[in-house]
Structures are given as C-alpha cells and as structure tokens.
Amino acid sequence: MNDRNKKTHVERNVKVGTQEITDAKTGEIKTINVMEIRQTDFNWNKVWLGHLLDALDVIGNKKIAVMNYLLEIRDIKTNQVFVTQRMVCSKLGTSLQTVSSTFKALQSAKVLKKERNGVYILNPEIIWKGDTEGRMDILLTYKKITQVEQKKGKITHKK
C-alpha cells in the first residue's frame, strides 16, 4: 500500500469545561472555567533532512542535487526560494535543461510553485520546519498562489 498519497492535515481539538482549584491564601475551593486547545499533525514522518540529503547525494543524481540545493537555500520562515534557474545552473555546474526539467517536475508534483520570476515557494504540506501555526500561515500563502494560477488558467482558456 502506497502511503505517499495520503494527505497531511492538522486537527484542532478544543475542550471547554470547569475545574475546581484551591485558593492558596484562603483555602477556599473555587470553580473556574477551563479551555484546553490541542493541535496535532497527522500523516507526518520525522526525517532528519540533513542526513537524508547526504544519503541522496551519495546516489549522485543531478536532479537530486537541484532539490537538495533548493532545500538548503530556502527561507525557513516562509518556505520561499529566491533563485533563478540560471543561478542554480551556475552554482551546481548543471545544465539548464536538467534544472528546468527538475523545476517542471517539482511543479507538476506540487512540491514547488512559482510566485514570480526568481521567487518560488516549497509546498508546506510536504516540506516544513517549524510549528503548526507557522505552517498554517505559509500554507494559506501557498494556496492563494494556487487560486491565482487557476484563475489565470480559466482566463486563458476563455480566449
């Protein structure tokens, strides 16, 4: 069974109730309202990215080297990658054709989205470092880009 097609998601549980506490000064028992909020991620595997990338580099595929480079240079807070394909070619000594086909494959697999020239964003449903709240913020940005792309696609088809 292939688990890679399972979606990652966040669940938020809120429990509201009451709790009895003892006032330390008076010894009086008081009933107070309590709200417990728990957020959990599902379908995630913890992977030490540095070790994984080192292992993939040993395999020696140029496309893996491109992905590795994108992960290394991404802005951890926004998942953005500020780079052009020609810059990647120059840095890695790889052909433009290899870099271009890698970018296209990552975009087709919904791992990478182009925000504008020289600015890409890695899908936070797949790659993220940080807490759930930060991931949710970046996920909204990622989805907005998808909506804009879809609208552009509909406008282009109408012509």
Keywords:
single chain; 159 residues; alpha+beta; three-stranded antiparallel beta sheet; two-stranded antiparallel sheet; 5 helices; 45% helix; 25% strand
Helix and strand layout, with pairings?
Layout: E1 9-22, E2 29-42, H1 49-59, H2 62-73, E3 80-82, H3 85-92, H4 96-108, E4 112-116, E5 119-122, H5 132-158
Antiparallel strand pairs: 1-2, 3-5, 4-5
Helix pairs in contact: 2-4, 3-4
Mean pLDDT: 79
Label the structural class: alpha+beta
| Rough outline | elongated
Mind summarizing the main beta sheet?
3 strands, antiparallel
Q: Which oligomeric state applies?
A: single chain
Following the backbone from N to C, one meets helices and strands in this order, namely EEHHEHHEEH
Q: Low-confidence runs (pLDDT<50, min 5 residues)? A: none
**CA-to-CA gap between the ends?**
43 Å
**How many strands in all?**
5
Strand order of the largest sheet: 3-5-4
Task: Describe, in short, the structure shown.
The chain has 159 residues and is α+β, with helices and mostly antiparallel strands. The chain has helices spanning 49-59, 62-73, 85-92, 96-108, 132-158; strands spanning 9-22, 29-42, 80-82, 112-116, 119-122. It contains five helices and five strands, in the order ββααβααββα.
